[in-house]
Every structure is written in C-alpha cells, then in structure tokens.
C-alpha cells in the first residue's frame, strides 16, 4: 500500500492507476455501445421501411463512440492534480474537440441526407459531388468558427485580419472560382455524365470524376488526365457514349482500268456489307462513284455502326470483307484507302465528303 501512495508528478500511483482504469473502462463501454448499436439497434432499424432512421443511425454512431471516449479521458484527467495552466489548456482543447465532434456528426448527417435524397429529387448524381463538397466545407467552417469562439478567440478581429489579405487572396483564387463556376456549368448543361466516353479537344477517354476544381478523364492508355473545369466548359466536347450510331466514311480508290461493269460490281458488293458484317446498319448506307482523280476512280462508301457494336472490331470486319470480296472480283486498289469516323446525331442528314 505504501508503494501505491508514492507520488509521480504530483499524483499517487493509485490515482494514476484509477485514471488509467477509467480510460480503459471508457474504451470497453464504447465497444459495448458499438456492439449494442450494431447488433440490436442496427438490426431493428434495418427492418423499418423508413430510410431516415437508417441515415440518422449511420450518422451518429461514430461521433457517439468518440464522445464516450472523450468523456472517459476527461474524467480520468480531471481527477488528477495538475498545474492550473495545464488544466486550462486541457479544458480549452476539450471545448474545441466537443464542438468538432458535433460538427463531424452534422457533416455526416448532411452527407448521408444528400446521398439519399438528392438523386431521388433530381434524378441525377452529376451535381452531387460539387454540392456535397460545398456544403461540407460550409459546415466545417461554421464548426471551426464556433470552436475558436468557444475558447475566447475574437472572431471579429480574426476576420478583420483576414480581410487585409482578402484582395490578394481573391486575385490568387480567381482560377479556383472560375473552376467552381465551370463545374456548375458542366453539371447544369450536362454535356456528359460520369462514365461517359468523350472527346475533349484532342483527348479521348472515360470521365471518372467531376470535381469542384477539375474534371478527370481515364484515357485509353489508362492514364488519368485532369482538365480545369473552366477550360472544359469552353472546349468543344464530343460525347461518344450518347451517339446513336458511329458514322464511318471510306474512300476506296480503284485503278483507271476498272470498267463500267466492274464499278457496278464494286458498288453492289458494298451494298451487301450489312448482310455480312454484324452491327452495320442496313438503312443508312451511302455508296457513290464520287470522283475522277488524277490517278484513281473514287467510291465514297459511308456506313453507320450501331451503338451496340464495337467500333474497332466492326470497322476491321468491314475492311476485311471489302478486301476479300474486291480481290475475288479482281478489282484493283490504288493509293491508300481513306477512312474517318464521325458521330451521327438524330438530326444528321447531310453527308460531307
């Protein structure tokens, strides 16, 4: 017993041991509460048809457990003897931690409510990331201001000090503001969704994120490309995913010794392509003997690949079929065959050579 009464830093070993046991007890209580919330409350809440109780349960669970640990540590610390300055610092730290814990709960609640009800109300997830991040920033700023005010920081003086550098900050942050406005432009105009394959300027790939500052694309080399939002808002964007069909223009150059009958045969061969190659639309073919050039007779062959078809494979199948059937018919190619792709919208009527 004499050993337990020995003092370390102004407190007996017995008092240190009791405080440690209180912290351990708080940890055990937190674990028991977590088990109760998960096994009893969680199971009960999942059986209800209302989603609001699930959201509240998920939002408060972690902050409640953290609050139990804070209470246990606070009791353990305050039963010991410390210098007044240390006690004051601990009290201020706890005031900040309590406010931040409440802010954390509020941020989780806002986040979960948005994820649950935003899509139902607006039928889209496209604006959710930006709105969510903006609201969370506002919640945390309010929480930090309240925490600092609670420990005696003069918020008015602090804001005045920050105001001195406000102009410089505004100038430095103008690109950030443009990017945020660009994000809202993208999310309201809806040129593409996350998961769409698009072409932005000379870059092509799949959109994986629309953030407050940038839009991220995963290109075909599996590299992530980040575009500032204001530049995407001003760029020419081709949404490949939403096109109903892919338009392919093919220039076939035949030798000048091609006869009238052979030219007819070539055009008839091209008319049969949709029946031999899957995903080539049979209703949109355009086949013209379009040009007499200096060294070739030119057939312009325009066809459309259905949305379900793989563009690369279908194009390869068409090229192989043209090569096979033209060789069979003894039709001689000259110069490279030119092929280029275009998206087809519902309003497309004209064919450009």
UniProtKB/TrEMBL annotation:
GO terms for cellular component: plasma membrane. The chain crosses the membrane at residues 13-37, 64-81, 93-110, 130-149. It is a multi-pass membrane protein. GO terms for molecular function: mechanosensitive monoatomic ion channel activity. It comes from the Bacteria. Belongs to the MscS (TC 1.A.23) family. This is Mechanosensitive ion channel family protein. It comes from Dysgonomonas gadei ATCC BAA-286.
């Amino acid at each position: 017993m004499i050993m337990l009464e020995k003092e370390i830093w102004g407190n007996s070993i017995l008092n240190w041991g009791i405080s440690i046991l209180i912290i351990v007890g708080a940890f055990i209580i937190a674990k028991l509460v977590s088990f109760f919330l998960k096994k009893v409350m969680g199971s009960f809440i999942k059986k209800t048809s209302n989603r609001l109780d699930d959201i509240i349960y998920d939002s408060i669970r972690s902050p409640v457990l953290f609050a139990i640990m804070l209470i246990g540590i606070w009791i353990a610390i305050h039963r010991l003897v410390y210098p007044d300055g240390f006690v004051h610092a601990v009290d201020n730290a706890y005031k900040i931690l309590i406010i931040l814990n409440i802010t954390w709960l509020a941020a989780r609640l806002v986040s979960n409510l948005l994820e649950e009800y935003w899509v139902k109300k607006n039928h889209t997830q496209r604006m959710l990331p930006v709105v969510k991040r903006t609201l969370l920033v506002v919640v945390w700023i309010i929480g930090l201001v309240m925490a600092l005010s609670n420990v005696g920081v003069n918020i008015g003086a602090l804001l005045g000090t920050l105001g001195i550098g406000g102009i410089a900050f505004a100038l430095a942050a103008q690109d950030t503001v443009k990017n945020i406005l660009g994000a809202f432009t993208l999310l309201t105009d809806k040129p593409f969704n996350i998961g769409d394959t698009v072409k932005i300027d000379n870059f092509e790939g799949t959109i994986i994120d629309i953030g407050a500052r940038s839009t991220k694309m995963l290109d075909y080399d599996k590299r992530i490309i980040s575009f500032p939002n204001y530049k995407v808002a001003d760029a020419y964007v081709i949404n490949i995913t939403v096109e109903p069909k892919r338009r392919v223009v093919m220039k076939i150059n035949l030798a000048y010794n091609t006869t009238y009958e052979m030219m007819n045969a070539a055009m008839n061969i091209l008319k049969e392509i949709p029946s031999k190659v899957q995903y080539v639309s049979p209703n949109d073919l355009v086949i013209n003997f379009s040009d007499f050039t200096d060294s070739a007779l030119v057939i312009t062959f325009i066809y459309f690949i259905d949305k379900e078809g793989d563009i690369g494979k279908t194009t390869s199948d068409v090229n192989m079929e043209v090569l096979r059937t033209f060789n069979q018919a003894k039709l001689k190619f000259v110069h490279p065959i030119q092929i280029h792709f275009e998206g087809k919208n519902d309003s497309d009527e004209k064919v450009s050579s």
